[in-house]
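User: Some background: our group keeps a shared notebook of sequences we're curious about, and every so often someone picks one and asks for a predicted structure to add to the entry. Today it's my turn. The entry only has the sequence so far, pasted here. Could you supply the structure so I can complete it?
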Amino acid sequence: MPELPEVETIKNTLEKKLTGHYITGTEIYLPKVIGPSTPEEFKKKVKQEKIKSLSRRGKYLLIHITGNKTLVIQLRMTGKLIYMCPQEPVKHTHVVFYLDNNKELHFIDMRQFGKIILTSTNELNNLPGLKKLGVEPLGSSFTRSILYQKLRRCRVKLKSLLLDQTFIAGIGNIYADEALHRALLNPQRTSNTLNTREITRLYHAIREVLHEGIVHRGTSFSDYVDGTGNTGNFQEHLRVYSKEGHPCPNCGTKIKRIKISGRSSYFCPYCQRSVN
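Assistant: Of course. Here's the predicted structure to add to the notebook entry:
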């Protein structure tokens, strides 16, 4: 599933291509991805609207158009949003936006979990999924003090807490494992047992790994590509995620994989040995 760095990369690649152009029409091949609007309503409401800007909230991509409307795009596991020259839609293409510059924006999703929701821009913060999102980890409102307060109020395993989108928005399995390794914290550690120094390490690790993920244009294993169809390369810089049996880059101990809340978690049993 695309996480914050992947969605931010998609936003960055599409922003230059889309901003200022008009949506001249839409083809909807799988109506369920645009609910609750009907295809007819959706097409009518976006036709001839100008794309004003793009933004991101957590793992959601937001395309703001005229008429006080926003397209809220959730890519989920296998969703892609690709800007391209006109062509016959490939398999699993569910929505095509036609643009006034003779280009197209294709929404492709093999697993069909992704969504495109059209909403009033004024109602964004009331939209299910968006309204309960936690703080943006790369924003100015995310401080060490805020992280300290949030951690001390919970008694949850660190890995599970970092995956909770109401706690911090945008972090998924890959970047949670990478941040915990950099912070030298065991993923099974209970959140309220961290001291001030450990919280500071985690704060910096979260921001560093997300920034690096963006610099390297996201992590591509199988499905993720940016808004022009190109893969990222942060997978070449991962330290622990999906590295079971490989040596830890810090100490050489073999990376271990365990399950936490049903999710695979990769960590170094030596560098991250302290559980409580």
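Suggested note for the entry: The CA atoms of residues 57 and 169 lie 8 Å apart. The first helix runs from residue 4 to 18.
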